[in-house]
Amino acid sequence: MDPITIALLVIAGVVVLAGLYVWSTYNGLVTLNVRVDEAWSDITVQLKRRADLIPNLIEAVKGYAKHEKQVFENVTKARAATVGAGSPAEAAAAENMMQSALKSIFAVAEAYPDLQASENFQQLQAELVDTENKIQASRRFYNGGVRDLNTRILVFPNNVWARQLGFGKRDFFEVDNPEAIAEPPKVQF
Fold first, then answer.
1. Within 13 Å, how many C-alpha atoms sit on residue 165's CB side?
2. Which end of the chain has fewer CB atoms within 10 angstroms, the N or the C?
3. What is the mean pLDDT of residues 157-167?
């Protein structure tokens, strides 16, 4: 073989290897991106589930605590913010509002022993605790996916290609006050 043919074969081999690398990188980033989208969807499902429980909880408490109008308004605002959240940052802000509102409503409930003994209220408590646990697990899964995607995007040589292929870093689902959501709201009486 002459040197020109060898050089062309080497160049063709390098181009094929580079193409395989870009193809593999793209597919890996698409896979991680879809996983992060799926995890975000799981979070929104759980936030919606909790938001759907809130009106029932309010109605259960309202019958006993009619004079606690501000508490009910705060819970309603927090619910609306949760349902309307479209990004992790908005969801985090709504999560802070919701945690504060739930603490208020359970503080009101503590003052009414008949409410605490209500089977309906106890069932709502159990469902809320279950939902809070699912939100926390979904948040961990989402943040793990975001970590993996962001790492893949930022490491060399992927960082050379990722932006050109249309991939950017994603936001973690973080809250301003991590202590507020470290544990589900206390709903045992």
1. 21
2. N
3. 84
